[in-house]
Amino acid sequence: MMELNEKPMGDKTKLLNTGYIAKIGILGASAWIVMLLEIALPFIFPDFLKLDFSDAVALIGAFAMGPAAGILIQLVKNLLHLIMTSTSGVGELANFIVGSAFVGAAGLYYKTHKTKKGALVSLSVGTASIVAAGALVNYFITIPLYSILLAPLEAIIGMSSKVIPAIKDKLTLVLFAFCPFNLLKGILLSLIIWPIYKKLSPILHKWMQ
């Protein structure tokens, strides 16, 4: 028989799960706020490609709590952004998949290589993943959906070719717009995370306890 002063064995797990969910929610909401501060890069990329650094928040979560946490933070961020979507949800879907590839790959590597070198390699792995995932997602999902829901493919290519003349079709749109854009994004995110994560790490690990 259980003593009166004993706690059910599931209580600790429930508390941990509640805390975990709360932290995911806080970081997801924070990432969404950062996502609102997007930056256009005129004369370099087409207008529909805007840079934001919300993936940095998700990556910090992935480093502190594991790759699954980083992906969940991406999910919360994009669900919140659906409230004010201007892309019928297509942009949010692409952002979630590509961003999850970035934080998932980087977080997975860092989980078993928690050193300074491991962090550097994980950021490189994440950058390679965001470029590869971005190419596949945009070619097979985003561009087709955009052309159905928002604008004809010819219009998208025409708008893009004004900025990057080498763009002639869907393949060159991916190769000369989306791939360089995601490469730049991955590099910039890595440059942001690299100097600050170790400073934040003790605070985050204490917070995660």
Describe it for me?
With 209 residues, the chain is an all-alpha fold. The protein is 77% helix and 2% strand. The protein is built from seven helices and two strands. A two-stranded antiparallel ribbon has the order 1-2. Helix 2 (54-65) packs parallel to helix 4 (90-112). The chain is globular and about 50 Å long.
Produce a short descriptive summary.
The chain is an all-alpha fold. About 75% of the residues lie in helices and about 0% in strands.
What integer is the average pLDDT? 89
Biggest sheet architecture: 2 strands, antiparallel
**So what's the oligomer here?**
single chain
* Alpha-beta content class: mainly alpha
Write the layout of secondary structure elements.
Blueprint: H1 10-35, E1 39-40, E2 50-51, H2 54-65, H3 67-81, H4 90-112, H5 116-149, H6 153-163, H7 170-208
Antiparallel strand pairs: 1-2
Helix pairs in contact: 1-2, 1-3, 2-3, 2-4, 2-7, 3-4, 4-5, 5-7
